[in-house]
Amino acid sequence: MTALDDYRDGFLEEPGYLDFGRVGPLSARVVAESQGMHDILAKARFGSLADFDAQEERAHAAVAAATGFPAEQIVTQPNTSMGVTHAMFGLTGGVLLSAGEFPTLPISAVRAAEALHVVTPVWLETDHGRVTPGQVRDQLTSSIEAVAVTLVDSRTGYLTDLDGIRQVIGDRLLIVDAIQGFGVVDAAYEAADVVVSGGQKWCRAGWGTGFLALSERGIDRLTPVISGYSGTGAAEVWDEVPPPAPGARAFRVTNPDRIAQGRFAAALEEMNEVGADVIQSAIAENVDRVINLADEFAIPVSSSRDEGERAGLVVLEPPIDQLTLLTASLFNHGVTATTRTSSVRLSVHATLHDDTVEMLRGAFTSYSTAAIY
């Protein structure tokens, strides 16, 4: 039995679930970790709290193994949005980004600009929603100090070329919201200065999990504007306001949720044992199965068919007057997916049960039959 087989055995969701881009049902290992830690906290035996204190180092080590960033340059965050907000509020100068990115990026940039008046969003014109190195290169100006992108676009499913963007932006900061690919994409995180992700989607670690990782350049150039008492260098802070700690620790507001850290660590340890490259390859095979099924029923696929430009998201874009029909057909056959504006998004992970494929086939059959009439 391979590590990938063991990993796949940890998927607990019922057939028909294709919505990992929204939230990933907890893995078996994460469930066991969470139950065990809740049991320890419920009993609170003498000396047991030390187990909770150890979860931070464990979680940071797991993130380091997944990203290549040193553990001391990683700080726990409760979600992606908080980490992105830290980055945007810490910037000075122009930040180039697409207004069509997941709202976390543009909203954080605008809020930072409104509050501090030292960072300026510069809106990138994209290639049909795709942020490419060429588009970034052609729109750079001397006032731009940072470029912000998502690793995988949540609407188009496009996998961003981080290496290519690094090559065209020089020593500007590269900020990456990695939530739609972290753990399942073998990404060039070393090209980035800021990597932020939560663990509730593809990592299957549950809500309240996440991290912010900073390069040396990121640490040097970002100001820890939102820094709380646990972000100082002091063990106890009384009767004074010490400066933020040097490094990533400065981007802490308070003590993190230790059980969430344990869940996140367990999920990442499980994924690291397999390897993001192996998981990505398994997802690619399953994505092909879903695309081929859509082609069989002539349902338009607007996400990329190129394995190098995609992760686990398959975007279906039927005629707009048939979108409700497709959504209803999926629902009626027990397929969980996301419908947004003019498309249906199927999120395909490393495991794809035959029952799920048959449920999807049934939904497509119903849709196609009804669409004819």
Structure summary:
The chain is of the alpha/beta class. The protein contains 13 helices and ten strands.
Describe this structure in words.
This protein has 373 residues and is of the alpha/beta class. Helices cover 40% and strands 13% of the residues. The protein has helices at residues 3-9, 28-43, 49-53, 55-67, 80-89, 104-116, 133-138, 162-169, 216-221, 258-274, 276-296, 323-332, 354-372; strands at 74-76, 93-97, 119-123, 144-150, 173-177, 194-198, 210-214, 313-316, 338-340, 343-347. The strands form two sheets. A seven-stranded mixed β-sheet has the order 1-7-6-5-4-2-3, with helices on both faces. Strands 8-10-9 form a three-stranded antiparallel β-sheet, covered by helices on one side. Helix 6 (104-116) links the parallel strand 2 (93-97) and strand 3 (119-123). Helix 4 (55-67) runs parallel beside helix 10 (258-274), helix 11 (276-296) packs parallel to helix 13 (354-372) and helix 12 (323-332) crosses helix 13. The protein is globular, with a radius of gyration of 21 Å. The model has no long low-confidence stretch (mean pLDDT 96).
